[in-house]
């Protein structure tokens, strides 16, 4: 009895990049599961040609109506990146979650396409050691609890590069020359970031070699002159760069270009994976880093303290949920509801100085500013604030501490 | 009836800098309260000569045994800055709490000196609009619930610069020429940082003028060549720079020098004060910024995920407590107990690259590292991790989401 | 110069109960502030006749158009009590916030009436030691930042019962015989609860005397036979009792009657006031206690674990915000948004057993139940759950602990 | 090749109750793994004779030196139950974690015995659907990362009662008459509680039948007269009942007797398991319920507000960690450190009234009380509290809300 018969899977939608690994998976699904394959290739702004994926799929016998290539760039930034940025989310203090936030969108489309094509399963090329398998699968199960999921890297025995390539050749899959050897590291890219990990990065004491970086110039090679930019926000989302209104994806793309030029957004991190191990990653998030700083800048003058501090306390949990793959969970949605409510009137303009790896907020203004020069001033405030009120404020805040002190 | 009679205060310990403002306060206490004054001047590494304070105090009739000038630098860094750094504390995402963390130490000494000299009150020169009054007074009350506190800025009517100077001249207090006009901004300094606020900084849209900075070179003027340094940690605290063991204060001083040179640790922030208003401040924390990043770096490989994430969730509250003046509170001490427990084995070496405002971790190693190349590797892991386990892990994590999905 | 002239207050809206204390306040405002007074008496289901308040106000010269008596019972339960119950809010583990939740509604009406009548101030009869002053005033300021607030208990010198009564008699305010002596305790009542504090309750070692209770029978005197009831919920709010649909206030009133009969909802508590002291209170929340338990009961089968645990973690903060008077704050609204989102499908029927002080959930059912007998069963589950998945689940959850264990 | 050969396991320590299920497991380990078995039977106060377990083990060929029967009652209460009670831990608002807290202690002894006897594996009788497997195994792995774990219920095919009994008879294991049929529910018991689940309890709408309860009388059958008791605490732990000093286990046992008599501590709950499903359980925690309420009672007067509120916010996470099996984790230990620090001076006496299912605190006193009658009194407080301070306190707390209000 074949696997297909055992599993009962008749049609599977594969997250297909067109690269060697997912091409092997495509063929392996055909051979081992004996089932129809639908390919789905997403344009998330990873900066690669996607049409070759169509050709390769055709070569492996996929009919045109089963080849999906979708431009998801606007949806990605508008419905995933921006909501996350409203939370000022950073995992473990630093990581802007560039890979994590793309996975639920891919799963969402996989499930939609499965419905459109009558497929009963989805498949992905993530390995059994990483977070991405979890993110793909939790999202898929949340959106369709009956879906079947195939994760070839956890099932097959092609566990070394050599065996994978042998298998590819046995099955007439073309293997590009530069894929024959081991890649010195592994990458993932989308409009928000590029991540690299593995191989040459595995010793966390060794500095990341410069050739690993692909999205940013080395700060040392960045311009010697700072560049000032203005970003406009409306209700918590970026809407314009230097006064020019832009769609979400267009804005992020423009910030990526600025970040690249000024060497902004490089991060070398040892992080804790959901599956229980530590890994060392290198991230480049040029536009995202600028955007994240700008967002905090506009919040500084438009967000009330109570809202701001609550957001700061909720953020680590929110970031953890995204990192762990729980985008489509009630608790992430609850936190999002709280965060989104706070973003009303997070509107105005932030000025940043970009210079050799730095993206610093140097000014912010807003028609909805809560900053009151009248109240805060060292000068005469015309009675806006009665300094004597502070005495009572302190006295009552101190009362419990004094009662404690008396006990000692 | 004089204020002294009303208040019943006989002797007061004044936090005395030797500057014009606290000199006026000294005299005003003598005149208005008719009480003995004890002066206390702390060396917190603010980089000023303190002996002139002694002379000025003598000139105003303070007997030598009532003039305290204490070097608190090691205590400051060892018992206040380092414990706070163990928490990775940043207020509102960015501020390293340089002013906030110094206040409880000053209050602690004020209360100790009050006990030594039999004083029944303490006095400080913080204004009624700021956070420092709260920090001074909450700490003082916590340590001595019966202490009386005099905050002249909330009491007197010398509310303009002109009146203050007139009063000073009427009472034979020398007014230096450069203090006659308005200072363009107000500063506070200690070994951890220098802060500036007010006047020219009051418009948050205007970039902070370069002349406001005093502790760091402009990144544009910093060396064109990066500098690499190693910092050693033992159980969560820094112990050595480039292999040379140093006391806490010596280490921080050395990092300050490095930070100054490379333009590291400048921060322009609009923050929320505990007293309810927003203010705009400029901070320079050169050594602190380097140290904070290094500490996170060593935690990356030595701290378990559960501990690390709990710390991240507790941090905003912890930082808020320090900012608001609750250092000597049960809840800060509880959080500290949790944090300190986590720091066992946060031991090892972090390598940083300093360059024009950037202080980036580029390597970390530890005899207690939890990073396992054996487990994480993309290569054959000799059975250290069974990728098939991930299937069950995902299945059970997904179960509740699937049950939810079925309901929809 | 009169206080009125100094304060500039021309017209004030007074939260007026018609009792002796607020009658004295009414007169005192007329005498001391020389301003017009508008009286506002709210029916929150406190179980008192309100028309006498109208008569008394008239006797003190308030024109009819300045006498407001409003039935707020439905608004109170629908817009304040029920939203709070969705959060399962209990302050310090026990207190159902019966007084706290009424204050913002009263303030809201005070501010609305101030607008309608062109008043520039509001006044209340809460003392300077309690929480209610804070709750009234924070709400009032949030809704109208320019409002002036008069809190006579913090201003006047009628600080003993004797002086208050003397002043009343001097100003021709009738003093009922039973108000001449000291009341043995002080109470507050509304549809959700009755609270008592002070005097005979001030020693927290002494048991609350039975005569203090007014809303519930002593459990020892309650029926010897249990009573079973069913409560229906739709999207988190109660809608029916024993199959009979009811409005929010009607439902709460019916539950109050049941709670009274069975001696449910008595609470003797020493709590921490926002103003910094501990106080001992006695609360009776008969219907609220039943409702609160029923709400948890329906959540047990309809709320996902992620949502439920997030709610439990947010609850203490949410309860604290209400207790401290921050109902009209961005952070309370943010938490409410999160909580409300979770309540979709918190729909179904809860069965409770009421018996001598106990209100225990004994059954719950829902068309949206997430409880799956198929999955959980000890019997054959027909493959709904693969026990082997648990092995991988445990293995990956254990991985970080094993790496830690290896270090030790 | 036998399983033993494959697994390489030579000796296994089995958590052995002496009942039918673990007797079958014992034999199955001998047959299927061909390895030596060491039995460990813990006395956790479950109220069963343990010597029969020794006889049964001998009958199955276990040598005396491989039969461990340990009285862990004092260690259980002192080192597990009491620390947990310091946190006021309740899972999902209600459950006192009676089963959860016993598992780490059993695992601790399993690992100790494995070390003493040179065993390379441990085994337990928990099923693959429940939480207990997770708790046993996470604890075991944390304490010995190299240990092997056998969970027969996840491995074997004896998945129906009939097959289990057949297998037992084939292997000469005596099957008591009353074990031949299906048990109507499944129980776990220790000194803290008895839990029951499954079968007749699987419909959450059906009331738990009275015959399921074994540790408490039905409140309807409890005495008609209330009983008052005093419990003393020292630094957060119970030390005496009605003035008689007792060890932890003796105290809990005495409270169990009182709880049984008065029908206290019954709980019918639908809870969320860590493995992702909801289950319905019935718990009886007679002494624990009394103790938990008493502990909150003594905290009311001895714990500062800051500490109390922080504890309340941390509690749900702490309870979740215990429920999920993470007792031996850094994050549980961090939370414990914070909680334990707060318990200094949680010392004094609590008075409770026990009556037909109710255990209500009616009085509390302490030499370290923070409750100040002098401050809180409605009477003249001799200046202990200045009501005018409240004005400033409110004004500054309101400031940010007013600035917000102005924006609207």
From TrEMBL, chains A, B, C, D:
PANTHER family: ARGININOSUCCINATE SYNTHASE (PTHR11587:SF2). GO terms for cellular component: cytoplasm. Belongs to the argininosuccinate synthase family. Type 1 subfamily. Gene3D superfamilies: Argininosuccinate synthetase, chain A, domain 2, HUPs, Single helix bin. HAMAP family: Arg_succ_synth_type1. Homotetramer. This is Argininosuccinate synthase. L-citrulline binds at residues 95, 100, 131, 135, 186, 195, 271, 283. Residues 11-174 form the Arginosuccinate synthase-like N-terminal domain. It comes from the Bacteria. Signal peptide: none annotated. Keywords: Amino-acid biosynthesis, Arginine biosynthesis, ATP-binding, Cytoplasm, Ligase, Nucleotide-binding. ATP binds at residues 15-23, 42, 125.
